[in-house]
Amino acid sequence: MALTFIMIVGTAGAGKSTLARELAEEYGAIILSSDNIRYELYGNAECQDDPAKVFGIMNARTQAFLRAGTSVIYDATNLLAKRRHEMVLSLPCGVRKECWVVHPTMRVTLRQNKHRSRQVPEAVIYRQRRMFQPPTKGEGWDVIKYRSPTDHL
Ligand SMILES: Nc1ncnc2c1ncn2[C@@H]1O[C@H](COP(=O)(O)OP(=O)(O)OP(=O)(O)O)[C@@H](O)[C@H]1O
Ligand SMILES: [Mg+2]
């Protein structure tokens, strides 16, 4: 399979990390997750201190893995078009760029959030849904895929 950068897009509780794990097997890719980096730095995946540091580390690791020939899955909310576009521009030449969107209905998202151990306040999910800018090819993607809504029924 071609060397690929996969960015996952979705609000808290949408199912990003679940999809990331499925794709990691299929693509033979490594998962980089902002939550895991927060855990490494602070011992707590929910700590929102210093996002510049968290994403600085995540982006440096992305470069290192891709340059070593390993495909990367980039698991964070990635809700804003400008941030996604900047990320695409930073990638080494020749890397395939896939954007995967996980955007179930609000009802499903809230239910998934309720049924897991680490819950995010519902107000955060509402706020993130309002911020969400659907990805477009203009950001530089080779493909944009939506996780099928039926996967969430
Ligand atoms: N396709 C699906 N069908 C049913 N349940 C799902 C699906 N995807 C995720 N879930 C469940 O929803 C919950 C949230 O999923 P997940 O942790 O992948 O979300 P997330 O987007 O990574 O959240 P966060 O942004 O907080 O890390 C989990 O309990 C997971 O098992
Ligand atoms: Mg997650």
Q: Assign the CATH architecture.
A: 3-Layer(aba) Sandwich
Please list the strands of the largest sheet in the order they lie side by side. 2-3-1-4-5
Give the fraction of residues assigned to helices. Answer: 40-55%
Structural class: alpha/beta
Rg from alpha-carbon coordinates: 15 Å
Count of DSSP strands? 5
* Heterogens: adenosine-5'-triphosphate, magnesium ion
Tally the helices: 6
Give the C-level CATH assignment.
Alpha Beta
Low-pLDDT parts are none
Q: Largest sheet at a glance?
A: 5 strands, parallel
Please report which band the strand proportion falls in: under 5%, 5-15%, 15-25%, 25-35%, 35-45% or over 45%.
15-25%
Q: What is the average of the pLDDT values?
A: 94
- Sequence of secondary-structure elements: EHEHHEHEHHE
The structural domain count equals 1
End-to-end separation in angstroms reads 30 Å
Overall form: globular
CATH superfamily: P-loop containing nucleotide triphosphate hydrolases
- What is CATH's topology name? Rossmann fold
Tell me briefly what this model is:
The chain contains 6 helices and 5 strands; from the N terminus they run βαβααβαβααβ.
